[in-house]
Amino acid sequence: MASRHFYIQLLIRVLLITLTAMLLGFSVAYQWYLSLFFSLIALVAQVYSLVVFINSTNRKIAYFFDAIRNEDFTLRFPERVSIKSFKELNQSLNRVNGLIQEVHLQLQIREQYYQEILKQASIGIMTYNEKGHILFSNPTLEKLLDHSPLNHIKQLNQVDGNLYKIFESFEPFERKLFQLSNEREQTQLSIKSTPLMLDGKSLLLVVVQDIHKELDEKETESWVRLIRVLTHEIMNTITPIASISDSIIKYYRNNGKIVPLEELEESQIKNTLKGLEVIKEQGGDLMDFVQSYRSLLHVPEPNKTIVSAKELLGKIEVLMSARLHDGQTKFSVEFHPEDLALFVDEKLISQVLINLGKNALQAVSAVEKGRVIMIAGIENNGKKYIDIRDNGPGIPPEMMDEIFVPFFTTKSEGTGIGLSLSKRVMQLHGGGIQVHSVPNQETVFRLTFA
Questions:
Q1: 254 DSSP β-pair partners
Q2: Are 158 and 142 in contact (CB under 8 A)?
Q3: Radius of gyration, CA atoms only, the chain
Q4: Using the 8-state DSSP alphabet, how is residue 302 labeled?
């Protein structure tokens, strides 16, 4: 409505200027000097009035947008004016100003709400730009680092020089573990980064969490599992020894007295020999068990060299193919790219791959069209990996937390240290081992390298 009145007034003014200019032209042509004088004055006045009319509208709109940009919502345009188009324009601007002010207040309330959540969060949160200027840090982070206020990452030098180096060279989606020590305590920090774009500027959001408590809980849980498995294995070995020993003692002692040699029967002596053989066998099993424990604790430090993934998996393929007898199970390897190289201890990693390959082949032995495949490649973040995939029955969810516990096994044979030993080898390489399993569809063990 306001724009229509504005255009009508503008059209009328332009028509009047046109008519006045025509009159001025006739006055010059016919030498109407009096008419020339008045028409010239009228033309100048009309042009000036048109300029003032347009500039007044432009100034209002310019003032309006300047006020919005400066978040000044106190600007009000008079609505009691004689010109109807100006009145409607002023009303429209005031209405828009009110709506923007309402939206701005809602955004401020929402921002305060989110900031309060971040301040109360139990994890440390920080954002900083490419120059290292910290735009936000919540109280939890300042408490974790024992430094306040935080304005620039260079201040972290005062906390710990190594911590500053981590933040200085932090890459997006990177994750670091850092042990922060002070006079009172040691804190194990997990530090993760995520890139952000704000107002066209690149920022880095860093989340810092004290995982010392979680690590303690995990460590305690691991010890409980290990002790449970050790107790189970040792009791299985010792119980028959104790039982047989008690039976043998009864052959040679009666009512607290030693039975004379001439009273012993041949069957008692034979049973004694059988019992001693069983005790010897059980003792040997216990020695093998202890030896397995020693091998787990004495994994040598990796002697790393550059190894071709193609050659490494080729050797594993030859070894695994020799175990295929039924003609239905298939074992294959892949590598992407073909010239992929790994910086590893070839002997240790081969031992891990052989162990995982054997487990996979055993898992698919009873599966129709069983298939095991080893794939070496590079993740999107640049980390190299080797996957061991099979289409066997899979791992039940309730056992996922148990499979890496030393000596835990569901097989009738074996020591149960294969997976825990593999995990230890990968830790020594600075990498890790993860497992994903969908029962009766696919099980994947992934070895990741630093």
A1: 257
A2: no
A3: 42
A4: P
- Predicted model pTM: 0.46
N- to C-terminal Cα separation, the chain: 68
Tell whether the torsion through CA atoms of 48, 51, 54 and 57 is positive or negative.
negative
Q: How far apart are CA 368 and CA 373, in angstroms?
A: 16
Kindly report, residue by residue over 235-264, the tens digit of the pLDDT.
777 777 778 788 878 777 777 777 777 777
Question: Please, are residues 193 and 171 in contact by the beta-carbon 8 Å criterion?
Answer: yes
Tell the residue number behind the tokens 């028409």, with chain if given: 39
Q: Report how far apart, in Å, the C-alpha atoms of 32 and of each of 17, 20, 36, 42, 47 are.
A: 19, 14, 6, 15, 22
**Cβ neighbours for 306, distance < 8 A, ≥ 6 positions apart:** 341, 342, 343
How many residues comprise the chain? 450
For residue 37, the one-letter residue type is F
DSSP bridge partners of 446: 387, 434
Which stretch of DSSP H or E encloses residue 352? helix 346-364
Asked whether the beta carbons of 372 and 330 are under 8 A apart, the reply is yes
Give the span between the Cα atoms of 390 and 445, in whole angstroms.
9
CA–CA dist 252, 259 (Å, integer): 5
Backbone angles phi, psi at 375, to 5 degrees: -125, 125
Please write the tens of the pLDDT for every residue from 338-358: 899 999 999 889 888 988 998
